[in-house]
């Protein structure tokens, strides 16, 4: 329970019912100018950002940062975002019903397979009889 002692700033309590799901949400805000709908939209956008970073932490295994400088942290976040966008693009291009997590797991397990990516994601059998022209012959 928030009291005046624990939160000395003035806040406003607003309620919003989502017309699609029918769920009722309650928000606390210090914005007294906007109506309930824009406040709910702002919180919804914040929620999407939170879900994005949760997905990155869970699936790209960023539990800690390799460096402590601002540049090191930002570089690691940029790399994670690039991977996320590449997986999202692959999902979009493949038009499959696989979720991004499934696509990432398939790519992780089969990282060194030389196959057409879309055929691989569709589950097409590998062409075992054809010689791999990219394979290096060892003596």
Report the span from N to C terminus.
74 Å
Give the uncertain stretches in residue-range form.
none
Question: What's the domain count?
Answer: 2
Query: Kindly state the mean pLDDT as a whole number?
Result: 79
Question: How much of the sequence is in beta strands?
Answer: 5-15%
**Arrangement of strands in the largest sheet:** 1-2
**Which structural class do you get from the secondary structure elements?**
mainly alpha
- Main beta-sheet strand count, sense and barrel state: 2 strands, antiparallel
Order of helices and strands: EEHHHH
Structural shape:
elongated
Radius of gyration: 23 Å
Q: Helicity range of the residues? A: 40-55%
Number of strands: 2
Number of helices: 4
Q: How would you describe the overall organization of this protein?
A:
This protein is mainly α and 139 residues long. It has two domains: 1-59, no CATH class; 60-123, no CATH class. Helices cover 47% and strands 9% of the residues. The chain contains four helices and two strands, in the order ββαααα. The protein has helices at residues 36-59, 70-94, 100-109, 117-122; strands spanning 12-17, 24-29. Strands 1-2 form a two-stranded antiparallel ribbon. A hairpin with a 6-residue loop joins strand 1 and strand 2. It is elongated and about 70 Å long. It starts with 11 loop residues before the first strand and ends in a 17-residue tail after the last helix. The model has no long low-confidence stretch (mean pLDDT 79).
